[in-house]
Amino acid sequence: MMLPAAPENLLTAEGRPRFGRYAGQVDAFDWHELAPPHARGAWWRRFHHKRWHYVALATPELFCGVAIVDVGWTNTAFAYIFDRRERRIVAEFSQDGVPGLTASLAGNAGGASRFRFLSRRIGIECVGQRLYRLKVEGPGLRIAAEFGPDLMPLLLACGPAAGGSAHATQKSTGLPLWGEAAYGAVRHSLDGGVASFDYSNGLLARETAWRWASAHSLDLGFNLQAGYFGAQENALWLDGQLYGLGAAHFDFQPAAPLAPWHIHTDDGLLDLHFKPEGARAKDKNLLVAASRYVQPIGTFSGWVRASADAPKRIVAQLAGVTEDHRSRW
Which InterPro entries match (predicted)? Predict the structure, then answer.
């Protein structure tokens, strides 16, 4: 099913969220005018408002993941470089910030998000004409990249969040990439690679869990999630068009995330096998907050199609990630 064009605003004039999946983008993610039954008090919103800005970069040699996260009462950020040939993370940092001081999250996917804590810095911004820039600096790690323009529509998904209120996300498929990633004395060109981004903004439950998969080339890509957001953000980009997908099923071994995964949707439009090359994992327990997270990096093979009667498109060794994540935030 091809998706309709995105509305101008996430909320109607009466404050009702425009739940659904759309092709395109909006200029603001603002929940202050939410009407009942989705509206909550300002104090509740302060502690349940979660936002993140994530960028993935993929080349035959490297996979890089970068994110800035604001959970309302604090913020954090991470960056890593994964060497696909050595099958290991060769540089990374993860840094908790100071509330209200170290992170600034964009109000939409076309805005600028920044994190700065001592020598660790991340900047994600749109520099005009649908072009984006990423800069990362940290101990032994540096990324300077530009990517875009978007060759296929952005996904806009808005829906209820289990245990919370409303949530929305804006995601790209593969974008042309150029730049450089460096660690220590080693430098890698990113030219000719593929970038993608995820801007998410919502009022979520204190206990939130999800499984996620994402991979992109310049002519094919997908995003899948099972958990707090249901099938709202499940989408396929193919031949310049954006299609909605059904509920996603993740068959894997949680105790052995580097074993093969099988992922498929219940509408018969996607069936993929994921072969991990390595993973980034964190397990934090700060008493008032906790996060258990594993993000395998690897390749997807199988098939996708735009409709039940369309021919299957073969997917072979498409670089991307899966994720098993549970947060108390």
Answer: DUF2804
Examine the pLDDT at 201 and tell me if it is beyond 60: yes
User: C-alpha 179: how far from its chain's center?
Assistant: 21
* Torsion from C-alpha of 26, 31, 34, 38, nearest 10 degrees: 110
Instruction: Confirm whether 5 is domain-assigned.
Output: no
Indicate whether 215 belongs to any domain: yes
99 belongs to a structural domain: yes
Query: For the chain, what is the domain count?
Result: 1
What residues contact 82, with CB distance under 8 A and at least 6 apart? 62, 63, 64, 65, 88, 89, 90, 277, 278, 280, 297
> CB neighbours (10 Å) of residue 328?
17
154: containing domain? 20-328
Sign of CA dihedral 72, 103, 153, 196: negative
Tell me the backbone φ, ψ of residue 80, rounded to 5 degrees: -150, 155
Q: How far apart are CA 322 and CA 250, in angstroms?
A: 9
Dig out the tokens for 254 from the structure: 């949680």
Show Cβ contacts of residue 98 under 8 Å, excluding neighbours closer than 6 positions: 74, 75, 117
* Residue-level pLDDT at 129: 81
**Rounded percentage of the chain residues whose pLDDT exceeds 90:** 88
What pLDDT shows up at residue 311? 97
Classify residue 220: in a domain, yes or no.
yes
